[in-house]
Design goal:
The chain has 311 residues and is mostly helical. It has one domain: Rhodopsin 7-helix transmembrane proteins (Rhopdopsin 7-helix transmembrane proteins). The protein is 77% helix and 3% strand. A three-stranded mixed β-sheet has the order 2-1-3. It is globular and about 60 Å long. The termini are far apart.
Length: 311
Protein backbone atom coordinates (compact mmCIF):
# COMPACT_ATOMS: atom_id res chain seq x y z
CA UNK A 1 0.00 0.00 0.00
CA UNK A 2 1.01 3.63 -0.53
CA UNK A 3 0.10 6.10 2.24
CA UNK A 4 -2.45 3.52 3.47
CA UNK A 5 -4.97 4.86 0.93
CA UNK A 6 -3.82 3.76 -2.51
CA UNK A 7 -3.08 0.13 -3.50
CA UNK A 8 -0.13 -0.58 -5.77
CA UNK A 9 -2.30 -2.90 -7.86
CA UNK A 10 -5.65 -4.60 -8.23
CA UNK A 11 -6.03 -8.36 -8.63
CA UNK A 12 -8.31 -9.46 -11.47
CA UNK A 13 -10.11 -12.78 -11.08
CA UNK A 14 -10.69 -13.05 -14.83
CA UNK A 15 -13.45 -14.99 -16.55
CA UNK A 16 -12.76 -18.51 -15.26
CA UNK A 17 -10.54 -20.61 -13.00
CA UNK A 18 -10.34 -23.50 -15.47
CA UNK A 19 -7.08 -23.76 -17.44
CA UNK A 20 -8.85 -25.50 -20.33
CA UNK A 21 -11.47 -22.74 -20.56
CA UNK A 22 -8.75 -20.07 -20.41
CA UNK A 23 -7.05 -21.64 -23.46
CA UNK A 24 -10.43 -21.76 -25.23
CA UNK A 25 -11.18 -18.13 -24.35
CA UNK A 26 -7.69 -17.11 -25.49
CA UNK A 27 -8.33 -18.53 -28.96
CA UNK A 28 -11.82 -17.00 -29.16
CA UNK A 29 -10.81 -13.52 -27.99
CA UNK A 30 -7.61 -13.50 -30.05
CA UNK A 31 -9.58 -14.28 -33.20
CA UNK A 32 -12.25 -11.76 -32.22
CA UNK A 33 -9.72 -8.97 -31.59
CA UNK A 34 -7.91 -9.74 -34.85
CA UNK A 35 -11.24 -9.56 -36.68
CA UNK A 36 -12.11 -6.29 -34.93
CA UNK A 37 -8.85 -4.72 -36.10
CA UNK A 38 -9.11 -6.11 -39.63
CA UNK A 39 -12.78 -5.23 -40.17
CA UNK A 40 -12.68 -1.73 -38.72
CA UNK A 41 -9.32 -0.84 -40.30
CA UNK A 42 -10.70 -1.98 -43.66
CA UNK A 43 -13.67 0.38 -43.25
CA UNK A 44 -11.42 3.33 -42.36
CA UNK A 45 -9.13 2.51 -45.29
CA UNK A 46 -11.98 2.31 -47.80
CA UNK A 47 -13.73 5.48 -46.59
CA UNK A 48 -10.43 7.37 -46.63
CA UNK A 49 -9.27 6.37 -50.10
CA UNK A 50 -12.53 5.74 -51.99
CA UNK A 51 -13.77 9.07 -53.33
CA UNK A 52 -17.41 7.93 -53.52
CA UNK A 53 -17.49 6.87 -49.88
CA UNK A 54 -15.33 9.74 -48.65
CA UNK A 55 -17.87 12.32 -49.83
CA UNK A 56 -20.88 10.52 -48.30
CA UNK A 57 -21.86 11.68 -44.76
CA UNK A 58 -22.95 8.22 -43.60
CA UNK A 59 -19.56 6.68 -44.35
CA UNK A 60 -17.69 9.57 -42.77
CA UNK A 61 -19.59 8.82 -39.54
CA UNK A 62 -19.06 5.07 -40.02
CA UNK A 63 -15.28 5.54 -40.26
CA UNK A 64 -15.35 7.45 -36.97
CA UNK A 65 -17.42 4.67 -35.39
CA UNK A 66 -14.80 2.15 -36.55
CA UNK A 67 -12.03 4.25 -35.01
CA UNK A 68 -13.91 4.31 -31.69
CA UNK A 69 -14.44 0.53 -31.84
CA UNK A 70 -10.74 -0.11 -32.47
CA UNK A 71 -9.63 2.03 -29.52
CA UNK A 72 -12.48 0.83 -27.28
CA UNK A 73 -11.62 -2.84 -27.73
CA UNK A 74 -7.86 -2.14 -27.44
CA UNK A 75 -8.36 -0.63 -23.99
CA UNK A 76 -9.39 -4.01 -22.51
CA UNK A 77 -9.02 -6.96 -24.91
CA UNK A 78 -5.19 -7.20 -25.36
CA UNK A 79 -4.60 -7.32 -21.60
CA UNK A 80 -7.46 -9.80 -21.24
CA UNK A 81 -5.81 -12.04 -23.83
CA UNK A 82 -2.36 -11.95 -22.22
CA UNK A 83 -3.86 -12.54 -18.76
CA UNK A 84 -5.21 -15.92 -19.84
CA UNK A 85 -1.63 -17.23 -19.50
CA UNK A 86 -1.06 -15.69 -16.06
CA UNK A 87 -1.93 -17.44 -12.84
CA UNK A 88 -1.95 -14.12 -10.98
CA UNK A 89 -3.69 -11.41 -13.00
CA UNK A 90 -2.97 -7.89 -11.81
CA UNK A 91 -3.25 -4.31 -13.00
CA UNK A 92 -1.62 -1.23 -11.47
CA UNK A 93 -3.81 1.33 -9.70
CA UNK A 94 -3.30 3.99 -12.37
CA UNK A 95 -3.59 1.41 -15.11
CA UNK A 96 -6.99 0.55 -13.67
CA UNK A 97 -7.98 4.23 -13.54
CA UNK A 98 -6.83 4.66 -17.15
CA UNK A 99 -8.99 1.71 -18.25
CA UNK A 100 -12.05 3.20 -16.57
CA UNK A 101 -11.35 6.69 -17.95
CA UNK A 102 -10.86 5.50 -21.54
CA UNK A 103 -13.75 3.01 -21.44
CA UNK A 104 -16.22 5.72 -20.39
CA UNK A 105 -14.71 8.31 -22.72
CA UNK A 106 -15.04 5.99 -25.72
CA UNK A 107 -18.33 4.46 -24.59
CA UNK A 108 -19.95 7.88 -24.11
CA UNK A 109 -18.59 9.02 -27.47
CA UNK A 110 -19.90 5.89 -29.21
CA UNK A 111 -23.46 6.09 -27.88
CA UNK A 112 -23.55 9.77 -28.92
CA UNK A 113 -22.18 8.97 -32.39
CA UNK A 114 -24.77 6.23 -32.87
CA UNK A 115 -27.49 8.82 -32.24
CA UNK A 116 -25.87 11.11 -34.83
CA UNK A 117 -25.81 8.22 -37.32
CA UNK A 118 -29.51 7.58 -36.70
CA UNK A 119 -30.25 11.27 -37.33
CA UNK A 120 -28.23 11.04 -40.56
CA UNK A 121 -30.37 8.08 -41.72
CA UNK A 122 -33.54 9.98 -40.76
CA UNK A 123 -32.53 13.00 -42.84
CA UNK A 124 -31.45 10.81 -45.78
CA UNK A 125 -34.75 8.89 -45.88
CA UNK A 126 -37.29 11.45 -44.68
CA UNK A 127 -35.78 14.64 -46.17
CA UNK A 128 -33.77 13.42 -49.17
CA UNK A 129 -33.94 16.71 -51.09
CA UNK A 130 -32.30 18.60 -48.23
CA UNK A 131 -29.87 15.85 -47.21
CA UNK A 132 -26.64 17.34 -48.59
CA UNK A 133 -27.59 20.78 -47.27
CA UNK A 134 -28.38 19.60 -43.74
CA UNK A 135 -25.60 17.01 -43.39
CA UNK A 136 -22.83 19.24 -44.71
CA UNK A 137 -19.14 18.91 -43.81
CA UNK A 138 -19.31 21.48 -41.01
CA UNK A 139 -22.23 19.69 -39.35
CA UNK A 140 -20.51 16.32 -39.68
CA UNK A 141 -17.24 17.48 -38.12
CA UNK A 142 -19.16 19.32 -35.41
CA UNK A 143 -21.21 16.20 -34.65
CA UNK A 144 -18.10 14.03 -34.30
CA UNK A 145 -16.44 16.62 -32.05
CA UNK A 146 -19.66 16.85 -30.02
CA UNK A 147 -19.70 13.08 -29.52
CA UNK A 148 -16.11 13.16 -28.21
CA UNK A 149 -17.02 16.10 -25.97
CA UNK A 150 -19.99 14.18 -24.54
CA UNK A 151 -17.71 11.23 -23.86
CA UNK A 152 -15.09 13.43 -22.17
CA UNK A 153 -17.63 15.22 -19.96
CA UNK A 154 -19.23 11.89 -19.14
CA UNK A 155 -16.00 10.22 -18.01
CA UNK A 156 -14.63 13.28 -16.17
CA UNK A 157 -17.88 13.67 -14.21
CA UNK A 158 -17.18 10.27 -12.66
CA UNK A 159 -13.38 10.14 -12.56
CA UNK A 160 -13.16 13.36 -10.55
CA UNK A 161 -14.79 11.46 -7.67
CA UNK A 162 -13.15 8.13 -8.40
CA UNK A 163 -9.48 9.12 -8.07
CA UNK A 164 -10.07 10.77 -4.69
CA UNK A 165 -11.58 7.69 -3.05
CA UNK A 166 -9.57 5.90 -0.32
CA UNK A 167 -8.66 2.29 -1.14
CA UNK A 168 -7.24 0.70 1.98
CA UNK A 169 -8.76 -2.76 2.11
CA UNK A 170 -9.74 -5.33 -0.53
CA UNK A 171 -8.18 -5.00 -3.96
CA UNK A 172 -9.74 -7.98 -5.78
CA UNK A 173 -11.92 -7.29 -8.85
CA UNK A 174 -14.18 -10.11 -10.00
CA UNK A 175 -13.81 -9.38 -13.71
CA UNK A 176 -11.30 -9.51 -16.55
CA UNK A 177 -10.71 -5.73 -16.50
CA UNK A 178 -11.44 -2.69 -14.36
CA UNK A 179 -15.03 -1.53 -14.43
CA UNK A 180 -16.37 1.44 -12.51
CA UNK A 181 -19.13 -0.27 -10.44
CA UNK A 182 -16.77 -3.05 -9.33
CA UNK A 183 -13.93 -0.71 -8.31
CA UNK A 184 -16.36 1.53 -6.42
CA UNK A 185 -17.24 -1.42 -4.16
CA UNK A 186 -13.59 -1.67 -3.03
CA UNK A 187 -13.41 1.86 -1.61
CA UNK A 188 -13.04 2.17 2.17
CA UNK A 189 -15.97 4.55 2.50
CA UNK A 190 -19.69 4.72 1.87
CA UNK A 191 -20.11 4.87 -1.90
CA UNK A 192 -23.91 4.71 -2.09
CA UNK A 193 -24.11 8.30 -3.35
CA UNK A 194 -21.44 7.65 -5.96
CA UNK A 195 -23.24 4.50 -7.09
CA UNK A 196 -26.35 6.62 -7.64
CA UNK A 197 -24.22 9.06 -9.65
CA UNK A 198 -23.01 6.18 -11.83
CA UNK A 199 -26.63 5.23 -12.51
CA UNK A 200 -27.47 8.89 -13.14
CA UNK A 201 -24.55 9.61 -15.50
CA UNK A 202 -23.90 6.28 -17.24
CA UNK A 203 -27.37 4.79 -16.98
CA UNK A 204 -29.28 7.87 -18.06
CA UNK A 205 -26.90 8.67 -20.92
CA UNK A 206 -27.27 5.11 -22.21
CA UNK A 207 -31.04 4.97 -21.67
CA UNK A 208 -31.75 8.37 -23.27
CA UNK A 209 -29.54 7.57 -26.27
CA UNK A 210 -31.23 4.19 -26.64
CA UNK A 211 -34.71 5.77 -26.60
CA UNK A 212 -33.64 8.40 -29.15
CA UNK A 213 -32.31 5.66 -31.43
CA UNK A 214 -35.48 3.60 -31.22
CA UNK A 215 -37.64 6.68 -31.85
CA UNK A 216 -35.57 7.60 -34.91
CA UNK A 217 -35.86 4.06 -36.32
CA UNK A 218 -39.63 4.03 -35.73
CA UNK A 219 -40.02 7.41 -37.46
CA UNK A 220 -37.96 6.16 -40.42
CA UNK A 221 -40.05 2.98 -40.75
CA UNK A 222 -43.36 4.87 -40.45
CA UNK A 223 -42.22 7.41 -43.07
CA UNK A 224 -41.18 4.67 -45.49
CA UNK A 225 -44.42 2.74 -44.84
CA UNK A 226 -46.52 5.78 -45.80
CA UNK A 227 -44.62 6.06 -49.06
CA UNK A 228 -44.53 2.43 -50.12
CA UNK A 229 -45.23 -0.94 -48.55
CA UNK A 230 -42.48 -2.44 -50.73
CA UNK A 231 -40.07 0.19 -49.42
CA UNK A 232 -41.05 -0.76 -45.86
CA UNK A 233 -39.96 -4.38 -46.35
CA UNK A 234 -36.63 -3.22 -47.79
CA UNK A 235 -36.13 -0.73 -44.92
CA UNK A 236 -36.96 -3.45 -42.39
CA UNK A 237 -34.40 -5.82 -43.89
CA UNK A 238 -31.78 -3.06 -43.74
CA UNK A 239 -32.58 -1.66 -40.31
CA UNK A 240 -33.37 -4.95 -38.55
CA UNK A 241 -29.68 -5.83 -38.22
CA UNK A 242 -28.88 -2.28 -37.05
CA UNK A 243 -31.66 -2.40 -34.47
CA UNK A 244 -30.47 -5.82 -33.26
CA UNK A 245 -26.92 -4.56 -32.62
CA UNK A 246 -28.24 -1.40 -30.94
CA UNK A 247 -30.46 -3.45 -28.61
CA UNK A 248 -27.61 -5.83 -27.74
CA UNK A 249 -25.09 -3.02 -27.17
CA UNK A 250 -27.35 -0.68 -25.21
CA UNK A 251 -29.08 -3.54 -23.41
CA UNK A 252 -25.77 -4.78 -22.02
CA UNK A 253 -24.77 -1.24 -20.96
CA UNK A 254 -28.12 -0.65 -19.25
CA UNK A 255 -27.87 -3.94 -17.35
CA UNK A 256 -24.32 -3.17 -16.12
CA UNK A 257 -24.74 0.53 -15.29
CA UNK A 258 -28.44 1.24 -14.77
CA UNK A 259 -29.77 -1.98 -13.23
CA UNK A 260 -29.66 -1.49 -9.44
CA UNK A 261 -29.40 -5.14 -8.29
CA UNK A 262 -27.84 -7.10 -11.10
CA UNK A 263 -25.95 -10.38 -10.82
CA UNK A 264 -22.12 -10.21 -10.74
CA UNK A 265 -21.71 -13.12 -13.16
CA UNK A 266 -24.25 -11.53 -15.51
CA UNK A 267 -22.43 -8.19 -15.29
CA UNK A 268 -19.16 -9.93 -16.16
CA UNK A 269 -20.74 -11.50 -19.24
CA UNK A 270 -22.28 -8.25 -20.46
CA UNK A 271 -19.14 -6.18 -19.79
CA UNK A 272 -17.19 -8.56 -22.03
CA UNK A 273 -20.04 -8.48 -24.54
CA UNK A 274 -20.05 -4.71 -25.11
CA UNK A 275 -16.25 -4.51 -25.21
CA UNK A 276 -15.71 -7.40 -27.66
CA UNK A 277 -18.86 -8.53 -29.47
CA UNK A 278 -20.25 -5.12 -30.45
CA UNK A 279 -16.98 -3.84 -32.05
CA UNK A 280 -16.89 -7.17 -33.90
CA UNK A 281 -20.47 -6.94 -35.15
CA UNK A 282 -20.43 -3.28 -36.20
CA UNK A 283 -18.28 -3.78 -39.35
CA UNK A 284 -20.49 -6.69 -40.42
CA UNK A 285 -23.80 -4.94 -39.78
CA UNK A 286 -22.99 -1.42 -40.94
CA UNK A 287 -20.74 -2.13 -43.90
CA UNK A 288 -20.11 -5.68 -45.04
CA UNK A 289 -23.85 -6.14 -45.70
CA UNK A 290 -23.93 -2.81 -47.53
CA UNK A 291 -23.90 -2.84 -51.34
CA UNK A 292 -21.95 0.43 -51.63
CA UNK A 293 -19.28 -0.88 -49.28
CA UNK A 294 -19.03 -4.12 -51.27
CA UNK A 295 -18.63 -2.10 -54.47
CA UNK A 296 -15.88 -0.05 -52.79
CA UNK A 297 -14.08 -3.27 -51.86
CA UNK A 298 -14.17 -4.34 -55.50
CA UNK A 299 -12.82 -0.93 -56.59
CA UNK A 300 -10.06 -1.13 -53.97
CA UNK A 301 -9.11 -4.64 -55.08
CA UNK A 302 -9.09 -3.64 -58.76
CA UNK A 303 -7.02 -0.56 -57.94
CA UNK A 304 -4.46 -2.75 -56.16
CA UNK A 305 -4.33 -5.17 -59.10
CA UNK A 306 -3.84 -2.46 -61.74
CA UNK A 307 -1.40 -0.46 -59.59
CA UNK A 308 1.00 -3.41 -59.28
CA UNK A 309 4.05 -3.07 -61.52
CA UNK A 310 4.23 -5.54 -64.41
CA UNK A 311 7.58 -6.97 -65.43
Amino acid sequence: MKNNSMPDEFILLGLTNSWELEIFFFVIFFLAYTSILAGNCLIILMVTFDSQLHSTPMYFLLANLSLLDIIFSTVTVPKMITDFFKERKTISFWGCMAQIFLAHLLGGSEVSLLVVMAVDRYVAICKPLHYTTIMNHRILVGSVLLSWTVGFVHTMSQMVFMVSLPFCGPNVIDDAFCDLPLVLKLACTDTSVLELLVVAFSGLLTLISFILLLVSYIVILVTVWHRSSRGLSKALSTLSAHITVVILFFGSLIIVYAWPHSNDSLDKFFSVFYSVITPLLNPIIYSLRNQEMKAAMVRLRNWQIFSKPHF
